[in-house]
Amino acid sequence: MAESFVRGDVLKMHDTEVLMYESHLKEQEGLYIALTKNNQVFDYVDVCVSAAERGDFQGSVEELKAYLAAFFKEAVWLLRDGYRVNLGGLVELYINLGGTFPTPATPIDPEKNPASVHVRRLHDATLLAKSVHFVNLGPAPAAARIDEIADSKTGAMNEVVTSGSPFTLTGRNIKIAGTTKPGDRIGIGFFTPGSPNVTVWVSENLVVNEASKIIGVVPDLLPNKPWNVVIRTQYSGGGTLLKETREIMSGFTVEKAP
């Protein structure tokens, strides 16, 4: 019987964050589907590194990689020989021959009888699913970006800004929305990388605050350094605010006009 790698942890609930996406299926119009936030695919090398970092494997990552490579190679040979392979009580792999045959003696036709790998979910997979606690983060953020910033005094685009003068920022889903909380600032500012990082925030009295355009005034005290434009907002592109603030950084830098 295959060893179970799930039962020992089945009672330990693990938080998994999900985001809500609009469904585009005709029969699901107006509804949302949940997709996990952490949707990165781990290959067996990534799993080896994770096991070593977690401390579940006491040897080196290279040793574990070699063991797993040998395991998968042997599993493939067994599948080719017609055996079923049980992977830790989670799923069972096997090769199946499709299609039908008019008589028991009909030769196998690869076109009419294609072979395919099948996956059968086992009991421990159900236990694994039940051991996860899902946390709803709300609507998934629509794609957002900062395209351009225009300085009203000089007419420069993505180059300089003039202290005390209006600017026009354009982009996608850049509207400032949400409530500033301790340690979680909402707004638009000028950010300079380096040590230490400095952000000079623009007045909240914005002339225009829309999804594709923001008009405000450049701070008078903006030092003479290269600056990125930074937006921190909970605007989702829809009618519901994001539960987490997202940060949008310009791909260009501007300097204070002489």
Explained architecture:
By secondary structure, the chain is α+β, with helices and mostly antiparallel strands. It has two domains: 7-138, Irregular (HU Protein, Chain A), CATH 4.10.520.10; 141-256, Coagulation Factor XIII, Chain A, domain 1 (Distorted Sandwich). It has three helices and 16 strands. The protein has a four-stranded antiparallel β-sheet, with no helix packed on it. A four-stranded antiparallel β-sheet has the order 11-10-14-15, with no helix packed on it. Helix 1 (44-54) packs across helix 2. The longest helix is centred in the first third of the chain and has 20 residues, at 61-80. The radius of gyration is 28 Å and the shape is elongated.
Query: How many distinct beta strands?
Result: 16
Task: Please give the radius of gyration in angstroms.
Answer: 28 Å
- Note poorly predicted spans: none
Q: Biggest sheet, in brief?
A: 4 strands, antiparallel
Q: SSE order, as H and E?
A: EEHHEEEHEEEEEEEEEEE
Structural class: alpha+beta
Q: In one word, what is the shape?
A: elongated
- Helix content range: 10-25%
**Top CATH class of the largest domain:** Few Secondary Structures
SS element count, helices: 3
Per CATH, the architecture of the largest domain is Irregular
CATH fold group of the largest domain: HU Protein, Chain A
Which percent range describes the beta-strand content?
Answer: 25-35%
Strand order of the largest sheet: 7-9-13-12
Structurally, the number of domains stands at 2
Tell me, rounded to a whole number, the average pLDDT. 88
Termini separation (Å)? Answer: 77 Å
CATH superfamily heading of the largest domain: IHF-like DNA-binding proteins
